[in-house]
Amino acid sequence: MRSRFRSISPFAISAALILLGGSAIAASPGSSGLGDPYYPTDGNGGYDVDNYNLHLTYRPSTGVLSGTTTIKATAVQDLSAFNLDFALAVSAVKVNGANATFSRSGNEYTVTPASSLPGSSAFTVEVTYSDTPSSVSGTTWKKTSTVAMAVNEPHIARYWFPSSDHPRDKATYDVSIAVPDDGTTVVSNGVLQGTTIEPGGLKRWNWHSGVPAATYLTFVTIGKIAQTSTTSGGRPFITGYASDVTGSNLTNAKNSLNRTPEIINYLSTVFGPYPFEAIGGVVVKGIGFALETQTRPVYSASFFSSGTSSSVVAHENAHQWWGDSVSVDTWRNIWLNEGFASYAEWLWSEHIGNGTAQELANSTYNSHSSGSSFWQVVVAEPGAGNEFNSAIYDRGALGVHAVRVAVGDSTFFNILKTWQSERKSSTGTIEQFLALSERLSGRSLRSVFDTWLFKKGRPASPPGVSTVDAFASQAEPPSFAEIQHTHQLLAAGESR
Known about the structure:
This protein is α+β, with helices and mostly antiparallel strands. The protein folds into two domains: 29-223, Immunoglobulin-like (Sandwich); 326-491, Orthogonal Bundle (Neutral Protease, domain 2), CATH 1.10.390. The protein is built from twelve helices and 22 strands. Strands 6-5-9-3-2-12-15-14 form an eight-stranded mixed beta sheet, with no helix packed on it. Strands 1-4-8-7 form a four-stranded mixed beta sheet. The chain is globular and about 65 Å long. The N and C termini lie far apart (80 Å).
């Protein structure tokens, strides 16, 4: 019998095989990082994450965290392999339901799916793991006698869930964690969807965040935490206080956090509409900072040890706009987070009739002599590991005030609202903020930015004060001690 394929030449067959294999040949691994100059391996190339679904169990008695995180993502190239940022021990990985191979180098996992992922296609990754986060090398997971916490920056996600760990790759979150049903509470971001009782004496807490968040802004606190839930402006207002926060410390903390709705309402008038679906806060011991975890900041109890502190509440909630809704495109742009959150303290002080922003600018400037190392930090380029130097906060706030003085209040607040509305749920750079400020003010502001952000050295006078008048008043306004208290732990070199 004669085959009907005998007329096809070997050359044609070879060409057909090349064409059929074209997509596989074109597929390549995604990069192991997004190229942030400070942290080049943070984040991962080749895909964008849409949602993280964490279905975990935590045992306080052993500190073991176990379960599965499911990642929904979209390939942005033909992918033969991709990376995940993760520091815990993995037992299995599936891609689109099929077993995938994986290897580890430090805090980086390389995953090779059974078949390549076409560009623009949606895919799912299931990572199963079990480990003790508090004992992993380099961990920023905290475990005290009363609470376990995933709270820190710039790195925390990798110590409790696999991710593309960089602010550029925002996603929505479902955080579901089962803990012993003995009064142990789980507090995370967004809205509590409910709790369920599971076999083995466990209670599962289900949290949902429907507005995209950066990985480091997703948190969990687990322990004996008294949780309160009301509503404010139609949003859940959820607070939590660890059981070892007691006495006047607890009273002061509650009185401070209870002002959260009032503070958010005020900040909405200067930054634009509040960008998220919930508000609140958590107060714990065992950390030396407060962090702007999305929808629900976490505060060290030490901020309230000597009285109420609405300034730190203003600072962390200002971050809901500056850092959370609009995040840093790379970590060198940290001024866009901390400079504006610190300046929000000054605006809040002005709003409630304490020291004005100008008085606070004068006091901050006068508190650092010309020979101080404070003036040697370049705010726009602090360097890796120096992003949370006190100068980023205080000289950063002076820089914000300098922009306000240069353009006038009407234009200044228009700039702030426009930045937020144009970049909601995205990222930005200092240069982009400069360009917007110049566009809306109709004038060059490069010299202002150079003086306060891009150059070392103490400027001749505080912004808004002439050289002649710079030292006319040395008196600190009444609220200055409270403002400085917000930063006292930073001055001791602790991260925030």
